[in-house]
Design goal:
This protein has 17 helices and 32 strands. It has 736 residues and is of the alpha+beta class. The protein has a seven-stranded mixed sheet with strand order 4-6-2-13-10-11-12. A five-stranded mixed sheet has the order 1-27-21-22-23, covered by helices on one side. The longest helix has 24 residues. The radius of gyration is 27 Å and the shape is globular.
């Protein structure tokens, strides 16, 4: 099915199942521990051996020598794989660094060997016996030191151009009545998923099956085949449940490749669970940024010039953090400029993390908007509303398909009690705590991806959906079942959803906030075909056809749906392909975040007391699951504001706090009650589902709202994340 024009009325609009707060159908499995994650398969892989990854102890250089003799003699060891005996390996399309290093070392904890043994304990005990001598080289590890060497990165599918401009920014900024020129920094961050990267590999002749934790089955199947140098049709990748990804499992990592190599050498299945201290430096992270923002405005608050420059770094200068993306679209202003610069660093690979680009970009832009509002003596909510726009600011001929930023801000301000906010920073106190409120806009572009599905109808009226779409905790199983139930007119208990298997039609996968909208659209397309097959089988006319309550009705004739399959199963398969609507219209999601904080006047400790998100993101397919997505994102935003940061050792070139004990993330005690409001909205330009995404929108702007609330509470303006208490207390005036 090609989606080339805005959706009209279709069966989804009945909203008998779609749009309802249906409980997650995988919930009972997860809460009882019976959902099978990557490392937990036993029956399909009897007699599995265990692999333990050895990571490089240097960040840059070469392996001078590697001695495996002691490790091979260790009890239970079956085989040890290194670059010397692995055979020829390629590099996946989506990988920057090689997943098995040697002799060249590209980054710290790059995998250089896997020890395979009868038990996990034996593999772990043998791994330190691998003796490696290195010839280390000097590397570049700090963005600030490399910033002046940064260059313009190449455009890719997701980044857009490095630089954009409209009007004459320099002249517009120079002549502005009120100006802001400030620099903000965001740190390196890690995904910190609960489930580690894990894989089981099994060879059957030249056919490979891997059970792994992965967000993008089709991409990763192709990259695994490319890395191993085998046909993609010889690879089956299964990822039925993913215990958190946040972008860290979009692509294959070394656990997948090494499990496959180990299994081939050992001639038996091999299980690999990447050890927690290895994950941070072995896999990917969100890169640090330095961002300079300049805003010029008239005294009435209208922005006349806005410029956003961003610097980030990556291994081999491969991929930038596009922190300027939202500034190109969010606020009006005739004179505009954005630039992105990328430095080569020898740190582990930087790559996507939840809301790449907009998340760190909004952390800076939305503080700058607050600072500018103060200079103009305007309410921060009103300043944003004044500068709302209906068209793409860089291309005014292109309209937004839907844009309800102002409604989000007004709705949130009323619900949150924004009028009670102190107009004077530091002007509200409750005992030893200074109280403040903050606001930030939320913005994330609406991306869509080609997505396929297969739908089956059996003689019992059971509808089975098969697609390689993944569920990373987002609720894919449930919304896909809701879509099939709505389209085929059956209750949820008559739908079976099978996901995460490369033997199924290729879906959009879970990433970029496109998963829910795109994958359900693929199911919609397949169900349209199945409905037609049912109609033909039952000999019904093609007008006024209705599927409801397990019956198919046309005029005065009504037939049980199951009767269409009485002579054999009906199967339909299709793929949704999106046309050029994304070019004709700017498709984005919008929101507003409101935060109330208390800052201890003596210690500088910040406590978040209340949070509210208002979202405009098209049709909400399941409000219960969507709310869970947003409150999880809000929690992540609190972490980004107050605690999350990877710290670089500039001598050894690695992230020091590379485990969950020393990389701080919010816990239950850090998070108050969170309210979420979804504006009633559909967007027929987006898809036949008229939906968008919310999982990343819920993060964008949260950290800045916290920062702005801290300023309102204390009068201390911080521009460097995370805003830890040492930074606060250093500037906090003593107040008895």
């Amino acid at each position: 099915m090609k989606f080339t024009s805005p959706a009209t009325t279709n069966p989804i609009d009945r909203l008998k199942v779609v749009g309802k707060p249906v409980d997650r159908i995988d919930g009972p499995l997860k809460t009882t521990g019976t959902a099978t994650y990557a490392h937990e398969y036993h029956e399909p892989v009897p007699n599995a051996a265990y692999g333990y990854i050895v990571g490089s102890a240097i960040a840059k250089g070469r392996i001078a020598s590697i001695d495996l003799s002691d490790a091979k003699r260790a009890p239970g060891v079956l085989t040890i794989i290194t670059a010397e005996n692995a055979g020829k390996l390629d590099k996946g399309t989506f990988n920057n660094a090689r997943l098995l290093g040697g002799p060249e070392i590209e980054h710290y904890h790059q995998a250089i060997a896997i020890v395979v043994a009868e038990t996990f304990e034996q593999a772990r005990a043998a791994a330190p016996l691998v003796k490696v001598k290195y010839a280390a080289q000097k590397g570049q590890y700090l963005l600030n030191d490399a910033k002046d060497t940064a260059t313009s990165p190449k455009k890719n599918e997701f980044s857009g151009p490095a630089d954009t401009k409209a009007g004459n920014f320099d002249q517009g900024f120079r002549s502005a009545a009120v100006k802001l020129d400030a620099t903000y920094t965001t740190p390196d961050q890690t995904h910190a998923a609960m489930e580690p990267h894990a894989t089981i590999a099994l060879w059957n002749g030249d056919k490979l099956t891997v059970w792994t934790s992965n967000q993008m089955v089709n991409w990763s199947r192709g990259d695994l085949a490319k890395t191993l140098g085998i046909p993609s049709e010889n690879v089956r990748l299964i990822s039925a449940y993913v215990g958190g990804g946040f972008g860290g499992k979009l692509y294959i990592r070394s656990d997948v490749v090494l499990a496959a190599l180990g299994a081939r050498a050992a001639k038996r299945p091999v299980k690999v669970a990447m050890q927690r201290p290895l994950i941070v430096n072995n896999t990917t992270h969100r890169p640090a940024t330095v961002q300079r923002i300049r805003i010029g405005a008239r005294r009435d608050g209208k922005i006349t010039a806005i410029g956003h420059e961003s610097w980030s770094g990556d291994l081999n200068a491969a991929k930038p953090e596009m922190a300027v993306a939202q500034t190109r679209l969010l606020y009006a202003g005739a004179h505009r400029m954005t630039t992105t610069r990328l430095a080569a660093l020898d740190l582990p690979e930087g790559n996507d993390m939840r809301a790449p680009g907009e998340a760190p970009g909004m952390m800076a832009l939305e503080i700058a908007m607050d600072e500018m509002a103060e200079k103009l003596k305007l309410d921060p909510v009103m300043f944003r509303i004044i500068n709302d726009t209906r068209n793409d600011p860089e291309n005014p001929a292109r309209q937004f398909s839907r844009r309800r930023l102002t409604q989000c801000l007004r709705t949130g301000a009323k619900r949150f009690g924004w009028s009670k906010r102190s107009l004077t920073p530091g002007g509200m106190r409750d005992g030893r705590y200074l109280i403040g409120m903050g606001v930030a806009a939320a913005f994330r572009n609406n991306l869509v991806k080609t997505s396929g599905a297969r739908v089956r109808l059996d003689r019992n009226g059971i509808v089975t959906v098969e697609t390689d779409m993944t569920d990373i905790g987002t609720g894919s199983y449930t919304i896909i079942a809701q879509t099939a139930a709505e389209m085929m007119g059956v209750p949820m208990e008559k739908v079976v959803t099978r996901l995460g298997d490369s033997d199924f039609p290729a879906a959009a996968g879970s990433g970029g906030q496109w998963g829910a909208n795109s994958s359900t659209s693929g199911v919609y397309a397949a169900c349209v075909k199945l409905r037609e097959a049912v109609r033909q089988k039952l000999g019904l006319p093609d007008k006024n056809l209705d599927f409801a309550n397990g019956m198919v009705t046309a005029g005065s004739r009504s037939v049980p749906l199951a009767q269409a399959a009485v002579d054999g199963e009906l199967v339909a398969e299709d793929t949704i392909e999106f046309g050029d609507l994304g070019k004709r219209y700017q498709q984005s999601t919008f929101g507003a975040h409101f935060v109330d904080v208390a800052v201890d006047v003596y210690t500088g400790e910040t406590r978040v007391r209340r949070m509210l998100a208002v979202c405009a993101a098209g049709r909400i397919l399941n409000p219960k699951q969507a709310r869970s997505q947003v409150i999880g994102a809000m929690t992540m935003g609190v972490g980004g504001a107050l605690m999350e940061a990877l710290f670089v050792d500039p001598r050894a070139g690695y992230f020091v706090n590379h485990d969950l004990a020393s990389y701080e993330v919010p816990v239950h005690a850090d998070i108050p009650h969170q309210d979420v409001i979804f504006l009633d909205e559909v967007d027929p330009v987006s898809s036949p589902m008229k939906a968008k995404g919310v999982g990343e929108l819920g993060l964008c702007g949260v950290s800045a709202a916290v920062a702005n609330a801290m300023y309102n509470a204390t009068g201390v303006r911080l521009r460097d994340y995370p805003m830890t208490l040492d930074k606060v207390i250093a500037k906090l005036p003593y107040r008895a």
